[in-house]
Specification:
mainly alpha, globular, 84% helix, 212 residues
Length: 212
């Protein structure tokens, strides 16, 4: 009976993840992708955060919709700042690749390193966005700080991503059903550990943590 109960729980979690992924796709499309993708992504991260902190049985649609509305403008501002930064990096790399001299080669490697840091920081941006009450610029700075001080969480994200990638290679249909929600779950699970360590350090110093 215990084994059956465990299987039913796993099945229920899988259904929740599939439903959340469906909501993410639908609400991204409702915002014509251009305005819907970032609010839908932040809402998906927010739901999974609540799963970790509260209960897996929370009303998914109601929670998703409330978070989508609440953070619609702020998440779009954050998302397009990140998009613009990434686009500028991309253009810089393409421009430098057209020039062949030692100086530009050094600039090229610097830009590649900067891009690597940019990508790693993005992994922390949305978890920080849904977990803390911060301004858009503070979200980016805090995400960068967590990326620097939490190599263990970053390694966990990378390992989870590799496993999920090879799983999807074997079963491509899973990408449409679980692609967004499972990726978000892996990222939130890894960053949740970093957040708990941060909260423990704050309490040890006699201060209170300030999550949402």
């Amino acid at each position: 009976m215990g084994g059956l109960s465990g299987l039913l729980k796993i099945f229920a979690i899988a259904l929740n993840l599939a439903y959340l992924n469906f909501l993410w796709i639908i609400f991204s499309l409702l915002g014509l992708v251009v305005f819907g993708f970032f609010p839908a992504t932040s809402a998906m991260f927010g739901v999974i955060r609540k799963w970790f902190l509260e209960d897996w049985d929370l009303p998914i649609f109601k929670t998703f919709w409330n978070l989508y509305k609440k953070e619609f403008i702020k998440s779009n501002i954050l998302g397009y700042i990140l998009f613009l930064a990434g686009f500028i990096l991309y253009l810089d790399i393409k421009l430098v690749q057209q020039m062949s001299n030692i100086y530009m080669t050094m600039v090229h490697y610097f830009l590649l390193m900067l891009t690597f840091v940019y990508v790693l920081t993005i992994f922390y941006v949305w978890p920080v966005f849904v977990h803390f009450e911060l301004s858009v610029l503070q979200v980016i700075k805090t995400a960068f700080s967590f990326m620097v001080i939490s190599p263990y969480s970053t390694i966990m994200m990378a390992a989870g991503g590799v496993i999920f990638y090879f799983t999807v290679q074997q079963f491509p249909g899973l990408l449409l059903i679980f692609g967004g929600s499972v990726s978000t779950l892996l990222i939130m699970w890894s960053t949740h550990i970093a957040f708990r360590r941060r909260d423990q350090k704050i309490r040890q110093n006699g201060k209170e943590a300030t999550p949402k």
